[in-house]
Hints:
Radius of gyration: 20 Å
Strand order of the largest sheet: 1-8-5-4-2-3
CATH superfamily of the largest domain: Dehydroquinate synthase-like - alpha domain
Mean pLDDT: 95
CATH class of the largest domain: Mainly Alpha
Largest sheet: 6 strands, parallel
Number of helices: 16
Shape: globular
CATH architecture of the largest domain: Up-down Bundle
Oligomer: single chain
CATH topology of the largest domain: Dehydroquinate synthase-like, alpha domain
Amino acid sequence: MKDFILKIPTRIYFGNHNVEGALRKEEELLCGNIMIVTTGRSLKKYGYLDELKNILDGCPNVEEVIIFDRISANPRLEEIEEAVKMGRDRRVTAIVGFGGGSALDAAKAAAVGIGISEKLERFLLEEMEPTGEVLPIIAIPTTAGSGSELSKGAIVSSLKYRIKGGIRGDAILPKVAIVNPRYTWTLPMDVTMETGFDALAHAIETYTAVKANNWSEMLSEKAIKIIAENLPLLKKNIDNHEAREAMSYASMIMGMNLANIGTCLPHRMQYGVGARTDTSHAIGIAALYPAWIQRQYDVNEKKVKDTIFWLTGKNVQSGKESKEELIEFMKFINVNKSLADLGIKREEVSVLAHKVMGDIGNDKLSIQVDIIENIYNDSL
């Protein structure tokens, strides 16, 4: 058995209708001026944002609740810098991230920018790891996919520098994660399927990753099986609350794996696609997945066979069969897009390939010559 270290420093509250009780138990973090960072639009529509603000207003040591709701679906450095300025000006002492992965990532980045006397762009452009006085973060996800409530990464784009990348480090792990599946009940079908695929990608990549260990593999297997059962149920009936709860759980446990294991090539390769096309994180990953899984079979045959069997019940005998079975599942949940569908042209591939950053060595494929460029080309 491989040696491993397991870190889950975030306190986790999981369950429906649990937000007020959890926040009451975390009052030591909620002192002074609190900033909610959110995308805000649907959360306002359904009353969730007002509900959260009212709960925070009722905490005895909270002086003021400040809302920053100008975060895009792909959170931008420029937006987060606005939140940082507001947070410094208003002497914010803690951050509550409320929303999907975009809002949570923006909240984590804002906590870095407000707490540390350093230009935020340096953490993105120079891949500096935040240390020191990062503000306490409470993460409340409203989608089931990103796992950002438990990960130590904040994925951010910059229009100015035309890049998408991560601010990463143990210091930006949320102090508290409050996972309430009730928030996912109102998600539309397309968001449900895309975020569900994101959770699946986390499960597959943390299962096949070089850093995978016995514990993480157990969680990955559990998540793949949960998603294989429940995402199709939601495709058939969007109001299946038990399936919603199961998806929130799968997403959450994959957040644990993200913090401890990390991802493989598709996540690193999507950043450039997202920066270039402003398309969703999950749909960009999905565009890369068939080509990646076919090649992953060559270096990880048993694990890819396991994955496809847990996902589809089919026993595959080649990379080509693995790709075909995965595509059928992706078609059923309506996430089967190519890079060309997203607006990527073949002449852009070389530039995209050279901009891939981060720990690509966590993918067994990374030792193959031109593997990144080949996957991009095969995904067009």
